[in-house]
Amino acid sequence: EERRLAEERRLVAEVALMEAEMRVGEDSNVGGASAGVDVETPIRRRGRVRNRIRGDMRAAALMRKRELWLYRDKRIVGPIPGVYVGDVFLFRMELCVVGLHMQIQAGIDYLPKSRCSNGEPIATSVIVSGGYEDDMELNDGDVIIYTGHGGQEKNSSRQICDQKLVGGNLALERSMHYGIEVRVIRGMKYEGSASGSGKVYVYDGLYRIVDCWFDVGKSGFGVYKYKLMRIEGQAKLGSAVLKEARDIKKSGVGKLLVASVWKLVLMVAFAL
């Protein structure tokens, strides 16, 4: 028991270090739909409640220690080799392990100015999952009005103060200035999801930031907004395919299709 507890404490320290190294200068309110990522899950044992590290965090920490994370040191701007539009990830930590989005909590991932040749931060990816009340999607997801990070009430999408043009917000603005595309991942509620958030994460391809402005949000505070347009010539949005599958499952059409196929098979069999 003592050995197991010692190992768990060590993993807690590993996870804390992992989060600190991946925070890349974000302010304390990293915001975004991701701000509520729980490292520990409360469990009950022998009448008392204690915390246990989530399984995906434990696995990611062990993989990190054994240097199995992809592109950890060589951060990639643009598409990730081996990751395709429509790929679905059951846990957010998977995005970190494959190099798609290296932030555990922040919705905006970026290279800090210290790692960029021009001395300015550059955004690499964003997660869109409804974490901000001012987010919008147009043209079936091909256009996104994305809200910057910061200024949110804890564990809420409501703004309580103005945002600042720092960290990920500045990186998105600089990416727009230089015409650098960003990867977009959508977090979607999905029945049967294995994660505590009830979401799965779908890679929807590359978008270009075409506009940026400071506006008064729904809560009356200033927010940075970015207009993202999907680059043409890519495969169909993975999130759209997943929504269609989810709708078919809910409507019962899927069962009818299966029944029709079996009926056709039996008709052919009897005909032969």
From TrEMBL:
Subcellular location: Chromosome, Centromere; Nucleus
Family annotation (Gene3D superfamilies): SRA-YDG
SUPFAM superfamilies for this protein: PUA domain-like
SMART domains in the record: SRA
Coarse class of the protein's main subcellular location: nucleus
Domain annotation YDG: ranges: 78-230
GO biological process: methylation
Annotated keywords: Methyltransferase, Nucleus, Transferase
Cellular-component GO terms for this entry: chromosome, centromeric region; nucleus
A GO MF label: histone methyltransferase activity
Pfam entry (one): SAD_SRA
PANTHER family on file: HISTONE-LYSINE N-METHYLTRANSFERASE FAMILY MEMBER SUVH9 (PTHR45660:SF3), HISTONE-LYSINE N-METHYLTRANSFERASE SETMAR (PTHR45660)
Protein's recorded name: Histone-lysine N-methyltransferase family member SUVH9
Taxonomic lineage: Eukaryota, Viridiplantae, Streptophyta, Embryophyta, Tracheophyta
